[in-house]
């Protein structure tokens, strides 16, 4: 049997406790996708546009992935807990950016930048008022575990590859996660399953590009399943769904446009291979 680069050591008790706590948080706070269907005027397409706008704004200020995914989680959870008037959708998106950046960034995204990005449709006070409305509905609990949090945890469980390999896999994982974030697929999978599937496809792609043979790629996915305690059927189905999402992308969309740069190894331009052997 080939030796996979993803063979891992047994997790420590601390890691097991950390993962268990993340799963509890996921179970408690993950916004079910069905909430979109509860509002006639709201749609998956409209959510995709608003989340795409969040991606663009946070890319402009070079915010972390943690900030992006928390902003999306705040947006979804606010909607799930009571909806939002159509006139306030864009304000909610901007306010979600503001709250998430205050939580994770050393310097929060300036309110002035948010209002300008919203074409000055809303005032600074509107953002502050919406902030209190969001925090009130969420009971000031914004410690929401996201797919990115699981991805960081899973990636830390994998042994070191080459520096270039780690960088490419991380960039590809981030790209696939963001593709799913602005798509309906984000609601079809729990954050933990989505993160595992993104890493699996990123690893599969990297091993293929460096010339690894099929048995080694297969073994790497098997080792990843063991490392993240993922069920085989969910992992493979997720990989195939992500492949279709990537294959149907438009280069002009916010996420592919963001990742079509040297800073991210041009991963959105990659020719992914559909996982068919599993």
Automatic annotation (TrEMBL):
Residues 52-136, 153-230 form the Cyclin-like domain. The keyword Cell division applies. Belongs to the cyclin family. It comes from Plasmodiophora brassicae. The keyword Cell division applies. GO terms for molecular function: cyclin-dependent protein serine/threonine kinase regulator activity. PANTHER family: CYCLINS. InterPro entries: Cyclin (IPR039361), Cyclin-like_dom (IPR013763), Cyclin-like_sf (IPR036915), Cyclin_A/B-like (IPR046965), Cyclin_C-dom (IPR004367), Cyclin_N (IPR006671). This is Cyclin N-terminal domain-containing protein. One of its GO terms (biological process) is cell division. Keywords: Cell cycle, Cell division, Cyclin. Residues 145-275 form the Cyclin C-terminal domain.
């Amino acid at each position: 049997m080939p030796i996979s680069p993803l063979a891992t050591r047994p997790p420590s008790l601390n890691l097991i406790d950390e993962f268990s706590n993340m799963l509890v948080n996921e179970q408690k706070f993950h916004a079910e996708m069905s909430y979109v269907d509860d509002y006639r005027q709201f749609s998956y397409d409209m959510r995709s546009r608003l989340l795409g706008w969040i991606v663009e704004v946070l890319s402009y200020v070079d915010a972390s992935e943690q900030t992006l995914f928390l902003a999306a989680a705040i947006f979804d959870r606010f909607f799930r807990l009571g909806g939002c008037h159509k006139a306030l959708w864009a304000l909610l998106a901007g306010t979600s950016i503001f709250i998430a950046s205050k939580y994770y960034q050393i310097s929060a995204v300036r309110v002035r930048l948010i209002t300008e990005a919203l074409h000055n449709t809303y005032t600074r006070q509107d953002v502050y008022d919406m902030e209190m409305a969001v925090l009130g509905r969420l009971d000031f609990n914004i410690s929401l575990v996201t797919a990115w949090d699981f991805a960081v945890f899973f990636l830390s469980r994998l042994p070191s590859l080459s520096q270039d390999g780690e960088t490419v896999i991380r960039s590809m994982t981030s790209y696939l996660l963001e593709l799913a974030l602005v798509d309906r697929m984000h609601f079809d999978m729990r954050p933990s399953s989505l993160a595992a599937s993104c890493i699996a496809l990123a690893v599969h792609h990297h091993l293929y590009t460096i010339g690894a043979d099929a048995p080694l790629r297969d073994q790497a996915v098997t080792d990843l399943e063991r490392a993240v305690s993922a069920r085989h059927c969910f992992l493979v189905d997720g990989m195939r769904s992500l492949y279709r999402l990537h294959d149907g992308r438009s280069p002009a969309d916010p996420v592919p446009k963001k990742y079509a740069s040297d800073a991210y190894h041009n991963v959105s331009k990659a020719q992914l291979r559909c996982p068919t052997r599993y």
